[in-house]
Protein: Transcriptional regulator
Amino acid sequence: MDEKNRYEDLDEETLFLVSQTFKALSDPTRIRILNLLCTEEHSVTEIAEKLNLSQSTVSHQLRFLKQLRLVKFRREGTTLYYSKDDDHIMHLLMQAIEHAAHH
Structure:
C-alpha cells in the first residue's frame, strides 16, 4: 500500500479505535497502570497501593482500558485480577517509555 494513500484507506471504525488507543495512552494514570500490568497481574487493591491511587480511580481507569481490550481480568472469589490483554499496545508503550528515557 502506498503511504500517501494510507489515510484514505482507513475506515471510520479503525480511525476511532486508533484514536481511542492513543487517548488511553495519553493519560499519565493509565500509563502507570499499564506499565505496572506489563509484567504481571494485580488486583485493584494492589494497583491502588503500588501507585498510591484510590481504588475508585483505579477501577475507573481499568474500565476504560478494559473497554479498549488493553487489559483483561479474572475473578478469584470476590477479587478481580487485571493483566495486559494486548501485547502490541504494551510493546508500543514500552517503546514510548524507552524513547522518553533517552531524552
Q: What stands out?
A: The chain has a mean pLDDT of 91. The two ends are 33 Å apart (CA to CA).
